[in-house]
Amino acid sequence: MNAPATLRPPGRLASIHDAITRFGFYCSGACLAAIVLSYCYEVVSRYFFAAPTTWASSLVSYLLCYTVFLAMPELTRDRIHIFISIVLDQMPVRAATLLQHGAYVIAALACLAAAWFCSEATWTQYVRGISTVNEWPAPKWLLSIAIPYGFLSTAIYFGRLAFDGQPYQSPEGI
User: Fold this and answer.
1) pLDDT digits (tens, 9 = 90+) for 127-166
2) What CA–CA distance (Å, rounded) separates 167 from 150?
3) Does the keyword Cell inner membrane apply (predicted)?
């Protein structure tokens, strides 16, 4: 099977966006590694030394947010986001292309709306000084900031996909 087709950047701004996205994806991987290491440490600490940590559970939940929302734009850029193609695969290429690009526009608008809503919530958390309520409190905005970034960056990629001029190609053929 061929590697998935990646979105071709139309210019310098898109190249910068792609570089930021790739960096975020690597950070997402680092967060995932930290989650695995902290859980392993917690298991060893708890069951072999009878000394459970007070921070591992909080760290995992904090990093999980970053893991998801830093990876999301890269998955969209590489067109490996979740995509159910059964209807498009049965259509002529021109009609499938129009429908797919229309779906990308709708996805971009939905992600923009989510980014707007989440950025307002994050700003409110910052202004009000809201912290998490667990054994390892942290300012909520520091955790939430990844959410509007992920949605905004993903919205930009869906917009780029919608107007890239590429004809529909089934994910099986990519």
Assistant:
1) 999 998 877 788 999 999 999 999 999 999 999 999 887 8
2) 26
3) yes
How far apart CA 144 and CA 118 sit, in angstroms, is 8
Q: Where are the domains of the chain?
A: 12-173
